[in-house]
């Protein structure tokens, strides 16, 4: 199976993860059952999954020179992820997320700043990345919506050179609409709600009106809805008892980027759902990789 390269555009965070019996009440102190620290963000987790499945990812996001960047870089390097820094001289702290995962349900509570202080304009695309796109050095691109001006620029280049672009539609982001003309695959959660959309049918119509031909909407443990120019259908997802659902959508997207380069849309969704379900059986966004 030939190794492929992927470019993942978006958010890079430092995630502090805690497994707890329950989320604390006001003024309550609790002791975590387990904890871990990892690089995070939708595009970052997708890139690490892409690497785990045997491909070569590059993350395009803001890292900078703050001390908290060091554990992020160490985690990326450990998992075989290359990176291109959109603002390598910044001393601003990378976004830090604190995540509480309830052991009995796998549900998570997240506090995060996301990319609110690290957004980069579209004219900051590194020339080296533009050159690699021109040379078709990447086989697929994913954008998560946290660096839309750069993501839009990358998507335009990718379309020009015949590289497919995947949109991570976990939730609606401002200016998402401006990048949609260059999107090939829209993978959205049930929480993805563009302006004026009241239900799933509206969301699908919204995306199709913008020229996106392959659309999938995930529903957690329920079947995935998908639409292509040829058919509409559903894909069953594995039934599991979740330990931790954090990052499952990101992992699904990274797996999709791997499988869509090797099979058709429906089968890529099915195989990606298998990988995402497996990730939910253990705590954190990395343990499932070690458990096989």
CATH topology: UDP-N-acetylmuramoyl-L-alanine:D-glutamate ligase
* Through-space gap between termini: 19 Å
CATH superfamily: Ribokinase
C-alpha Rg (nearest Å) = 18 Å
The topology string of helices and strands comes to: EEEHEHEEEHEHEHEHEEEHHH
Q: What share of the residues lie within helices? A: 25-40%
Name given to the CATH architecture: 3-Layer(aba) Sandwich
Number of strands: 13
- Stretches where pLDDT is under 50 for at least 5 consecutive residues are none
Number of helices: 9
Structure overview:
The protein has 292 residues and is α/β, with parallel strands linked by helices. The protein has a single domain, classed as Ribokinase (UDP-N-acetylmuramoyl-L-alanine:D-glutamate ligase, 3-Layer(aba) Sandwich), CATH 3.40.1190. It contains nine helices and 13 strands. It has helices at residues 42-52, 69-78, 127-134, 148-160, 176-179, 200-209, 248-259, 265-279, 287-290, and strands spanning 5-9, 13-20, 34-40, 56-61, 82-85, 96-102, 108-111, 140-143, 165-169, 185-189, 214-219, 222-227, 232-235. The strands form two sheets. A nine-stranded mixed β-sheet has the order 5-4-1-8-9-10-11-12-13, sandwiched between helices. Strands 3-2-6-7 form a four-stranded mixed β-sheet. Helix 1 (42-52) crosses helix 7 and helix 7 (248-259) packs antiparallel against helix 8. The chain is globular and about 55 Å long. The two termini are 19 Å apart.
